[in-house]
Amino acid sequence: MTCIVTLAMYSLQAQNDPAGQKRENAGAGGPIRNDRPLPPAEKRAEKMVEKMNNELKLSEDQKIKITSLATDHNKEMDKIHMKEKDIREQIKNETKTSRGNFKQGIQKVLTPEQFKIWEEKRKEMAQKRKGDRMPPPPEDMQD
């Protein structure tokens, strides 16, 4: 039971970077972290098992089984994150298209003068929203 809990803990830890932020994935190149490709799933699994062995003194049989479990899990998570990236990209494209269609519709309804004022107001609101966002924490607090 302890082994399963520890595996889950390491697995969750492996899915987050040191700052606790989710990893990003890069197209066909596979998963990346901090603009660098991640090692293959097998290497990540071996590293995790090595760390677990240092803390838990695993038997050879446990090492083999956990390495297999972790490798399969890492590959599955890589696929999930790639799907997530594809979905985010699709949503971004659909949103951009919808906004463009909306803007064209508004432009057809308003007079050129009204449309110019409307666009200026939209730009002001966008600037205001950008100003309302919290700045990132100072670098010394990002541990």
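the 2nd protein, sequnce then structure:
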Amino acid sequence: MEQDILTKGTVPGVRIYALRTTNLVREAAKQHNCSHLASACLGRAMNGALLLAATMKDNERITLRFKGDGPIGEIVADAEGGHVRGYVENPDVFLPLKDGKLDVGGAIGNGNIIVTRYLQNSEPFTGYCELQDGEIASDLTKYLYESEQTPASVALGVLVDKEGEVTVSGGYFVQAMPGCEEEVLEKYYTTLTDMIEEEMPGVHACVLSGPSHAEEVSRYIPTTVVAGAKSRKTAEKIQQIFMNEAFRVYTSPDMLGIEIGGALKNVIALAAGITDGLGFGDNTKAALITRGIAEMTRLGAAMGGYQETFSGLAGMGDLIVTCASKHSRNRKAGYLIGKGYSMQEAMDEVKMVVEGVHSAKAALLLAEKYYVRLPIIEQVNAVLFEGKLATEAVRDLMIRNGKTENPLLPWEK
């Protein structure tokens, strides 16, 4: 049985905290007789409290209260150091799956997050803000930014199997300290596994990626993905764990290429959604996917990934499903932008994390660093952050100077 762990590290401008709490959350769910949904809600809240407590001094404590109008009632998590307690008002809560996932946001509903910090030599400090979407991680991210002026990113997860057993639980918290710019983040870490390997020496990191919307995986619809690792043994171990009659896993040594593909395809999916919102057709979508994969390959290869990865499941496969699927939040956000919404209005309407918005900025930084041209991604950035009209962005892409599709192919004459 793997032990629970809480680790932290610091580089100039950035603090990183990560934890694995499978045993802790499994036991808490049993003690409270939690339903599948209540286990996920309680586990996320406890993970969040532990991560925030790790930022405080010894003998200081933090309490998180999620008070919404949903059927689960109030959720409380109280943490000090590496210890945490949790409470859920209605542990029997049940709601149908939402897009194939436990509906944590629906269980909590609309309301407030209330955070109380018990500090040494001072009175307790309490802050609060409205819930973002009731998903807990995004609520904490919003609270930290609005109430404590702390730019941060919080990710929390609890996986519950069909029998109600907690099989995986954990999360991470990345905090930008005063004076930290995006260039600083890009300088120190290219990918999440870079961060993991730097802060947890000796860990055997692995990435699992490909066209795999959770809404379909959870219904045992046939799906294929790729497991990437530096070690063949690690990749094959993950392959053995996840393979079944509805979920096929391939292996790859190109962990970097897989991660780059997984990030950049969200930017191209935003562009695909924008063209849908503008009312364009299949020709435009096919062009975006094809030229999008060219940009992904160009940057990925310049950074040290293998070109073959981008024609596989983590490249072309994931790009197709993200650009075309009704489940894709990046495509949906792009669609709304194409209909005239601003970037922020589109994100508010989607009510989930739209990864492509953040990846678009990072992609441009990397393109500058590796001297790579990314015309589609450049125009997506202009639409998102410079107020450029989507119709103008499409026009500027179309009227560029003519080029050969593949400069390596020979001409007979």
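The chain has a mean pLDDT of 88. DSSP finds 16 helices and twelve strands in the chain.
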